[in-house]
Amino acid sequence: MILSSAPATLAPGGGLLLAGVTLFLYALAALPAAFTGETWRRLGAAALLGAFVLHLLLLLIDIGGLAGGAGGAAGGMRWGFGPVLSMTVWLMVAVHTIESRFLPLPAVRLSLALAGIVGVVAALLFPGDPRHGTSALAPLHFALGVGSYGLFAAAVLHASLLDRAERRLRSGPAARAADGTVPTRTAAPAGLPLLRLERLTFRFVEAGFVVLTLTLLLGVFTAAQWRWDHKSVFSLLAWGVFAALLIGRHRRGWRGRQATRWLYVGAALLLLAYVGSRFVLEVVLGRPSV
């Protein structure tokens, strides 16, 4: 919906102050990972939740075009490298916030807090240029695309926990039973049984694959002219890798490192599709996002 009146503006100092408080809360959320005790755990959880809320306000300012942006640039919706990376990180924190209500995963708080700091700083340093969609469905296409980024990022985060757990099992002297087998119900670093963590990881992969498929289909049907640019090529390559991963898992029983390697490759290709190409254009080449 386009409003006839000019959008509300936010003073650059106010935006920077909001970003500063968000960064402080993310840093505070990362600190308790080095300490023990219930008080530190609650402090870290509260700080991460507060940073999550303020990060959303920053996204509304920077991407939603509600103001001039935290960095004080001209208003308008921004789809550049920094805001998209920031939104992807926020979606990861959103998944954790919902998930922690049912399956507490305190082991990932440090990673999420550090990723949050990177996302906020990236949006501050590289806010991108205001853009206008070429189609009425362009915002939906954008939202689905970033949603797939967030889901696959959550899958990668859980896969890293799964890999850490498997390495610990393989290297630990008490990891094997008398017959040489590895106990399948051993808890992962996140505090979950391995099989449960593995299922959770691939739930995110499956959901991300569905959202990515919808994103590509919407892009094909709404584009005025299909272009074989870097974004299209890397997106299709990523889709093919994820499709192969899901087929291999369901038909050939791919598990463990064999499966997570495919996930990492697909996630890297997807990252190159938009964030990577925008980074090269905006940061390396210094050209405006198109």
How does this structure look, described?
The chain has 2 domains: 10-131; 133-170 and 186-290. The protein is built from 8 helices and no strands. It is flat. The longest helix has 34 residues, at 138-171. Mean pLDDT is 76; it is low at 1-13, 68-75 and 174-185. By secondary structure, it is mainly α.
Number of helices: 8
How are helices and strands ordered from N to C? HHHHHHHH
Report the sheet-strand fraction.
under 5%
Number of domains: 2
Core attributes:
8 helices; mainly alpha; disordered N terminus; single chain
Short characterization:
This protein is 67% helix and 0% strand.
SSE layout:
Elements: H1 12-30, H2 38-62, H3 81-99, H4 109-125, H5 138-171, H6 194-222, H7 230-252, H8 256-284
